[in-house]
Amino acid sequence: MSAAQVTADTAAVTGSAPLWRRSLKALLASPVVWFCLVVLGTVLLCAVFGEQIAPQSANETDVSRAFTPPGPDAWMGTDDLGRDVFSRVVLSAAPTLQVSVTSVGIALVVGVTLGLLAGYYRGWVDVVVMRVVDVMFAFPVMLLAIAIVAVLGAGLTTAIIAIGVVYTPIFARVTRASVLSVREEPFIKAAKSLGARDSRIIFTHVLPNVSAPIIVQTSLSFAFAILSEAALSFLGLGVQPPDPSWGRMLFDAKSFLNQGWWLSVFPGAAIFITVLAFNLIGDALRDVLDPKTMTKERA
User: Fold this and answer.
1) Sign of torsion, CA 185 187 192 196?
2) Per residue in 167-205, pLDDT tens?
3) CA gyration radius for the chain?
4) Annotation: CATH topology of 22-53+95-298
5) Mean pLDDT over each residue of the chain, to the nearest integer
6) What pLDDT, on a 0 to 100 scale, did the predictor assign at position 99?
7) pLDDT at 23
8) Distance separating alpha carbons of residues 11 and 173, to the nearest angstrom
9) What is the mean pLDDT of residues 256-284?
């Protein structure tokens, strides 16, 4: 009998759906989660189909239309060069998501791997990994990211590497803490007694049982990565002109706050709403995947 059949039979006997199905049902029952999904879906559409959605190109200038306030001809107004703010906000979604997804992916893979090795093997592996993590935690996140960009040079690729590096220790520490509790479970000792290889135990038995906090941390890290990318671009260390980005638009707008309030409000609102959506999704995932919550539901 396959594992899937055993799971189905167990669910039928206990009268309850599988854990992942109950978690998904609880997650989608929240109106806040649906709001977040709509927001993130809109941002994703802008990132993928931005050129089709935007009425103008990002750098199409018309000085005669400079500082046009929001209206039917320009939904979000125009900037000092007559460029359409709505088009630039839409087209900025692509580099923002590219940086956040790629950098978090780097941090996830490297950090989780280091956390698994440190928590499972302990000993000198744990000492070396965690001392490196402690050193990286000694620096403020943005300061360390700026230092990396200063060494490698400003640009989109450098921003991805810098953000990925500075968030790697977070995943390593979260993963290690979860592995330390799981490695002493009876099913891990049973797998060892049956002669299972360490790699099989780690990726087949340990990783699935520590995935809940990793999933939550991943969702929250997307929000922090967007903020970090915006900060680096604002400082001129991220996306380079003439390519648009929300952080760079805020930098360009700071000199024209009196002439056009919309120049800072709309890219700032895009950052705020996107980060808020990721944070709310992370909080919802934390509530759903919390073992104490699941225990109360079973009771």
Assistant:
1) negative
2) 999 999 999 999 998 888 888 888 888 888 888 898 888
3) 23
4) MetI-like fold (1.10.3720)
5) 87
6) 92
7) 74
8) 34
9) 93
